[in-house]
Amino acid sequence: MHRNKRKWSVNPENAKWRYSIFFLWRGEIKIMHSLNDKIHVWYIDKKKHLPFQEEKNAILSQEEKKRAQQFYFEEDRLSFIIYHACKRFILSQYLLKKPNELIFSKKENGKPILIPQILYFNLSHTHNLGILAITKDKEIGIDIENTKREMDYLNIAKRFFHAIEYESLIKLANNEQRKKYFYRLWTAKEAILKATGEGLSEKLNQVYISEYPYSHSLENKISLISLDAPENYIASLAIIGEKKEIECFFF
Predict the structure, then answer these.
(1) pTM higher than 0.90 for the full model?
(2) I need a labelling partner for 4 at 20 to 30 A (CA). Which of 11, 26, 40, 159 fits?
(3) pLDDT band, residue 199 (cuts 50/70/90)
(4) Helices 153-160/163-170 angle, 10° precision
């Protein structure tokens, strides 16, 4: 089971103060030590960081800045800058480095990694909310989706989901139930494939999720966990190996 340090009914101003304390502690203790046998999950509120987009852009690498400029839509460009800058800032607090000092690379399968790979992390974002998972010694994947996003989910499920999953989906009583079930499956599958580094491609229908709420280990030793999320969002986390205790923070 996992536990959250933030309930979604908490006053955001109180939450902001609470998590500022986390950073102030870094001069007295090593934040890295708090990751022992745990996973830290950070929820990133895009709207709170929009007024500081210039400062965020300044800590990105030249390669990241170039990638940001390649987005056609301004909203997508801002999302990239904010979420990747926040990723740098949060990881830097664990490593006691400046955000712009962090070096990232990619594995052969394209999965982003830190150099040196002291921490394992994974980032996902949708609409105005991002989510960053961090742990010490295991490959990890995370995904979050906005359930209000309009998409032809029944056709997508028919094409990419396992036949048993699709049958379970269409048997549900109403559209709202089917949509939530779809996003639970989708985030679970994407988290697993991000943890393994395989990516989505054509492998979605090869990942069969059998129970909800899921908090169990699959046959190939991947632990899958359904995370708490704000209203209209669904999030899942996957880690190679056994489950760990999860602590959630808001940034």
Answers:
(1) no
(2) 26
(3) low
(4) 150
